[in-house]
Amino acid sequence: MRVEQSKGMNIRTGSRMKKMFTILLKTIGVIAIAIVLFFATVFIVNVISNKSEQGKIHSYGQLVPVDGKNMNVLIQGKGEETVVLLPGYGTGAPALDFKPLVEELSPFYRVVVIEPFGYGLSDGTDKERSLKNIVSEIHEALQQLNIHRYTLMGHSIAGIYGLDYVNTYPNEVSAFAGIDSSVPTQGGVDEELPIKSIEFLEQSGLLRLIKKVSGDPYAGLPYDDETKDQMRMISNKNSNNSTIMNEMKNFSANFKAVKNLTFPKNLPIILFVQANDTETKGWIPLHEEQIKNSVHEKVVTLEGNHYLHHTKSKEIVESFREFMKEVK
Fold first, then answer.
1. Which of 128, 135, 125, 204 is nearest to 170 (CA)?
2. Which pLDDT belongs to residue 201?
3. What whole-number distance in Å separates Cα of residue 26 and Cα of residue 200?
4. Longest Cα pair distance anywhere in the chain, in angstroms?
5. 205 contacts 38 by C-beta, under 8 angstroms
6. pLDDT at res. 9
7. Cα(200)–Cα(207) distance, rounded to whole angstroms?
8. Rounded distance, CA 246 to CA 6, Å?
9. Helices within the chain (DSSP H only)
């Protein structure tokens, strides 16, 4: 009797386990299908959205032939002196992103916004994003526009490109102004970047979804709705394209290439630096150290995020104009 009861319990237990295993397999299957459907939907939405947005992007500026391709350049203002603006890494539409700064500068200067290859409405390129190539392409664009004397004003990574530029073309640059600009000695430039992960996010469409759920990055900033829509669409178009990704791959090499470079001693240098940066150790001292041997130099700290020109354009232009009057 006991044996029979034991056998019955084993049969029931085995039956229950089989049933639970079947339910588990079905659950895993449903989850797998849901994941596949999610990624497929995100991918398809991204492809359709990209095609739809292409026709909604409005042209601005002018296309300049550079190295067999077209580089987009925006020119505004009719001042006697020229200020050339260079963007930070990955800025989707530099000419639109710089709009608050351009509007503050243009009553006093001719302002030229360069959109390097891979940025804004410029073509992409298969040419290596080495320091030498980037600098020579910017110079060629200015030569095509017959611009031979100017101030370079650059944001973020443009501090690295600008440092090489002023040493390569010292007779053309009258001053350099950095907007929270990168310096060769800052930490973290040798760290391995998650390039493959970033490429996956872009190609899968997940990056578009992340941007969507993250909200409006320009909320509360001095941009009208149309400009914000254009920046969003152009950013989606250019997001991590092959040119931009190649530039990222060259970060470490480009920083190393200028490690021993200094600004020409007599070149006026003004650096606008984020006052409350917490990501890079010694951010303000690094900038002070960079220009300590310059004859005409100034570091101006401003409260704000890395994109100081979004909220502090008026202060930047006022300080820049005052500085340039002092050095003349």
1. 135
2. 66
3. 29
4. 110
5. no
6. 52
7. 9
8. 69
9. 2-54, 94-97, 99-105, 131-144, 158-168, 195-204, 206-214, 225-238, 242-249, 251-257, 283-290, 308-311, 313-327
Q: What is the pLDDT of residue 182?
A: 97
CB within 8 A of 43, min separation 6: which ones?
204, 205
What pLDDT shows up at residue 240? Answer: 78
Is residue 67 within 8 A of residue 127, CB to CB? The reply is yes
Name the token pair of 161.
């490109």
| pLDDT in the model for residue 181 | 98
Q: Which residue shows structure tokens 């386990």?
A: 17
Look-up of token digits 């899968």: 204
Contacts of 152 (CB under 8 A, 6+ apart): 84, 86, 158, 162, 165, 166, 173, 175, 176, 177
CB 271 within 8 A of CB 178: yes
| Cβ pair 143, 100 in contact under 8 A | no
CA distance 309 to 321: 15
Enter the tokens of residue 186: 């800052």
Three-state DSSP at 278 gives coil
DSSP 3-33: HHHHHHHHHHHHHHHHHHHHHHHHHHHHHHH
Residue spans of the chain under pLDDT 50: 1-5
The DSSP symbol for 58 reads P
